[in-house]
Amino acid sequence: MKERLPSYGGQAVLEGVMMRGARVCAIAVRAPDQSIVVQTQPLGRFYQSRMARVPFVRGLLMLWDALVLGMRSLTFSANVQMGEEQKIEAAPMALTMILAVALGLGLFFLLPAGIGYLAERLLSWSSWWANFLEGVVRLLLLVGYVSAIGLWAEVRRVYSYHGAEHKTINAFEAGAPLTVESVAAFPREHPRCGTAFLLTVAVFSILLFSALGPLPLLPRLVSRVVFIPVLASLAYEYIRLTARWMAHPWARPLVAPNLALQRITTQEPDRGMIEVAIAAFEAMRASEQVAPPAPSHE
Predict the structure, then answer these.
(1) N- to C-terminal Cα distance for the chain?
(2) Is residue 2 part of a domain?
(3) Which pairs from 179-188 meet CB under 8 Å and 24+ separation?
(4) Beta bridge partners of 279
(5) Domain annotation covers residue 298
(6) What is the pLDDT of residue 294?
(7) Which is more confidently placed, 249 or 268?
(8) Structural domain for 106, as ranges
(9) Using CA atoms, how far apart are residues 261 and 279, in angstroms rounded to an integer?
(10) DSSP helix/strand/coil, 173
(11) Is residue 128 a part of any domain in this protein?
C-alpha cells in the first residue's frame, strides 16, 4: 500500500522549497555553489492536539503557523544565498513580514472597501451592489498583483519553485517514483495551494460583507479587518472539502477557478528546481518516519 502522510503543506521560497508534514517541516535551498542545503525542524505541538482537529479553529492555527514557518523559511533561504558573512537576523525579517501583512490588508481589504463605500454614497448604489463591486475590485487586485509581480525574473523563479513543489506532491500522491523525470510529468497545479486559499477568501468576502449591509466608512473598514479570521476559517474548510471531493465530476467546477489562478502563480520548473523540491520532500518524509509523536496537550 502506498504511504500517505497525515497532512501536507508547502511553499516556495527564495531558490528553494519548504515542505510541511504532520510533525516536521523541511526546507531545501539551492546554494550559490549549486549544492542543496537542507534544514529540518519540528512543528508546533498544536499539530498533534485536539485543537488541530476542530473545524474553523484549525484554519486560524494553520494560518498563523504558515506565517511563522514562512518567515523562518525565507530567513533560512536568504542566509544560504548570502553566505556566512552576511546573516539576516530574525527580527528584521519579522518586521518586514509585519509591514508586508499591513500593506496587504490595506491593498486587498481596505482599498476595495473604500471604493465600495464611494459607489454607495456618490452613485447611490444599494449596499448589495456596492459590496459586490468591492469584492470584484478585490479579485481584480489579487489577480493583477500576482500577474504583475510575476513579470520580475526573481519572482518568476519563485513561481517555478512553486511549480516544482506542486509537481512533487502530486507525484507522491499518485504513487509515482520521486525522480526528476517522473515528477516533471505531473501538473503544477494542486487543490490545496495557498493561492487557492487567497482566491477563496476573496470570493467569500463578497458573501460575508454583503450580509453586513450598509455601514459608515469607519465601521466598514474595521469590519473588513475584524472578519478576516472568519473568512480564513471558512476558506480553509472549503478548500479541505473540495480537495477531498475532487474525484467527483460535480466537484471539479468548484476547484477549477483555484487551479486556473495557479497557472499564473506557478511556472514550469527546470531540472534543478525539481531536485530541490524532491530533496525537501524526502527530508521531511524521512524526519516524519523517525520523529516521536509530540506530547499531547489534551
Answers:
(1) 31
(2) no
(3) 179/278, 180/271, 180/274, 180/275, 180/278, 183/274, 183/277, 183/278, 184/269, 184/271, 184/274, 188/162, 188/163, 188/164, 188/262, 188/266, 188/267, 188/268, 188/269
(4) none
(5) no
(6) 40
(7) 268
(8) 9-290
(9) 26
(10) helix
(11) yes
